[in-house]
Amino acid sequence: MMGLAAVCGPVLGGVMTHADLFGSSWRAVFLVNIPVSLVVPALSPKLLEDRAPRRPTLDLTGTLLATIGVGLIACPLIGAAPPPVRVELGAIVAGLIVMVVFGLHQRHVAVGGRSPLVEPSLFAHRGFPAALVMSTSFFAVTNGLMVVIVLHLQLGLGTDVLNSGRTLAPWSVGLAVASWVAGAIWSDATGTT
Length: 193
Hints:
Radius of gyration: 21 Å
Number of strands: 0
Strand content: under 5%
Distance between the termini: 18 Å
Number of helices: 7
Largest sheet: none
Structural class: mainly alpha
Helix content: 55-70%
């Protein structure tokens, strides 16, 4: 879904904003969630998955710690409230501390035999953390680049939202082709599918 959204999102967002459905302007882009939220549950029983030997439980403490930590970090970064810079930095530092507590809590939960919120076996091999860092870096750069390009097209060059979305179409197609080629190369190199 993330790949599909990255490919279709810029163009579809421009088309839907330009259509100004129900006078909603840019808010119309959120309507795309309706068919997705209907299709995904319908298709989910057909997805292959591994089953845990026992049904995991919800780690409420871990969920609360993760929510507070991410909230403390994200709110100042997106400018949800315009406090002084020292308050924003304090919130980010507090969020990082809460996330460290979250990590320690997850380790404690896993050692105690209960179900952690984050499965620790994922971190047993170096490939998973490396993939997390790479995908986070990739999406941070590409999303940041898209925002800058769209803002430059609309605010700097006076392009309308539809043409701004169309301008990103080659990028979207290139991203899809590059992902497919990279997957094929990886499969050939590792012998996996």
